[in-house]
Amino acid sequence: MKTKFTNDTRLESEIAYFENINLKLESGDIIESFKLAFKTYGKLNTDKTNAILVCHALTGDQYVAGNNPITGREGWWSRMVGPNKPIDTNKFFVICSNVLGGCAGSTGPKELQNGIDVAYGGNFPSVTIKDMVKAQSLLIESLNIEKLFSVIGGSMGAMQALQWAIDFPDRILNIIHIAGALKHSAQNIAFHEVGRQAIMSDPIWKNGKYFENSEVPERGLSVARMIAHITYLSENAMHRKFGRKLQSRDIISFGFDADFQVESYLRYQGKSFVERFDANSYLYLTRAMDYFDHDETFRKNIEFSHNPNNHLKYLIVSFTSDWLFPTIESKMIVNQLNSLSREVSFLEIDTDKGHDSFLLEEPQLDHVIKGFLTNNFAKIDE
Amino acid sequence: MNKINSIRKDWSLIETLIAEDRKILDIGCGDGGLMEQLENNRNAITHGIELNRDLAANAIARGFNVVHGNAELDLSQYSNNSFDYVILSQTLQAMMKPKDILSELLRIGSKAIVSFPNFGHWKIRLQLLISGKMPVTESLPYTWYDTPNIHFFTIKDFLNLCNEMNIVIEKSIGLTSKGRQFDISESVTGVNFFTHEAIFLLSYKNFEPIKIKSLKKVFAKNSVIAN
């Protein structure tokens, strides 16, 4: 396999091109050629034992730390990844790639189709978490890394980490699985469906061909983001942050302006999301999450895999106030691993910050991630 | 003996009961102190379960395989005979259903190690006899209304239960309140009087071959699965 690498100065990101590779997707469709945008942090050691893959969540990207040129803000997990941070880039070589189907430089609906000068839009094939992981595995291969020390992710990133453990256990040593599940629940699919309907019922969406007139279905995409954002918080966190406080006024308006701070906040979240995310990508990626289901198959896959996976270590973390991926979902994974006597650690962190906790200030999360990585790395380094 | 010394003593005695290179589940593993000791000195493969969130987090951060959970609810997830030893140190008296826990220990492990403070110690008997109040001692330092120890029992009670459950006591170590150590099985008279803390190595007796009762593969009883 020959892979071309370029550096995109505008995106401040490396791009790996996989040409004429005929990537077969779970759906049966084939992508002839594709590219993945990725960032690396820290240095690969001479034995190539210190590589960590960080998988981003639904609306994340490869800018895990440092500057994100798209938003002009810090990377989405810069509090976790960096020199002397819990995922310490003085010690580890951290790789983060934009998922297949994403919109930050990797092949996805907003990129040009192979051979023609038109973007995929709604013609992009349906991708799954398994497909994303397959593409990532090709990237890791092309970087000449035989074994990753760890695959780490929260939410959709946790789904990818779990998929790595199922599909490529012989190429990893451990996974850190945060706020995830064996399957996307009916409630989660329902929320995603509302978001997708909001986008698709925006007249500007035009079956995904909005780019032809250089337009963006802003209203639909921002409503989708507003709904999703509510599911990432918790009632207590919202109450603590906003309560019934009014926005820039002393009395209610008896109209439909953003009277309440919480309304104003959601409107802002929706508006700023539209500036950085592609509506079609949002459709494809939410669908990929919906299709994720290892409820019946995880145990069998781990137990009867032809890829050796006995050596794998798992760290599973959940949050008390996460109602999108509640603790019970994480415990199902832990139970199945324990029934197979696998090396698994599990912690439910007490917080009111909801599903988004993994992105926020949670000292206990930092503590276990740092310790888990450091101590397990010391064991292989001996 | 203070509490910390008492736990260290407990651990070093537990260590003497464990062979090299075995797989161990430590129930109520705290921050992994005993697991570390057994990994270092016995080359053990260790797993732990801990109810306290902060202790579980510390154990995980030290690199141990620890599940944050409640032994009374979460032991069912482990498979039959998936460990060589299951350890329950100083906690049986705090369990809601000690008998169920005991049978769970021996379902999951080939052997179980159980340690507990003896409620039949003479100081405790004397306190209740003379003052007429629930005893408060160094090893049981709580008043009746805030104690986590909800099922008090003596060595005699424990031996009777083992007998009833067909559990074999392979080894038993007693400690006096001064820390003197003796073999419980050899010193029958007064043992329930002088033993301050007891440590037992347990296994099931009378292994029978596995009986498959029907085509649906219903096994006769957990305890008959041979070692």
What does this entry look like structurally?
The complex is a heterodimer of chains A (382) and B (227). Chain A is α/β, with parallel strands linked by helices. Chain A has 2 domains: 3-185 and 292-381, Rossmann fold, CATH 3.40.50; 188-287, Orthogonal Bundle (Rna Polymerase Sigma Factor, Chain: A), CATH 1.10.1740.110. Helix content of chain A is 34%, strand content 18%. In chain A, the strands form 4 sheets. Chain A has a 9-stranded mixed beta sheet, sandwiched between helices. A two-stranded antiparallel ribbon of chain A has the order 3-4. In chain A, strands 7-8 form a two-stranded antiparallel ribbon. The longest helix of chain A has 19 residues, at 363-381. Chain B is of the alpha/beta class. Chain B has 8 helices and 8 strands. Chain B has an 8-stranded mixed beta sheet, sandwiched between helices. Chain B is globular and about 50 Å long. The interface between A and B is medium-sized, with 28 and 23 residues.
**How many structurally independent domains of chain B?**
1
The number of helical segments of chain B is 8
Domain module count of chain A: 2
CATH fold category name of the largest domain in chain A: Rossmann fold
Reading the helices and strands of chain A in chain order gives: EEEEEEEEEEEHEHEHHHHHHEHEH
SSE-based structural type of chain B: alpha/beta
> What would the average pLDDT of chain B be, to the nearest integer?
87
The description of the largest β-sheet of chain A is: 9 strands, mixed
Short note summarizing the structure:
The complex is a heterodimer of chains A (382) and B (227). Chain A is an alpha/beta fold and 382 residues long.
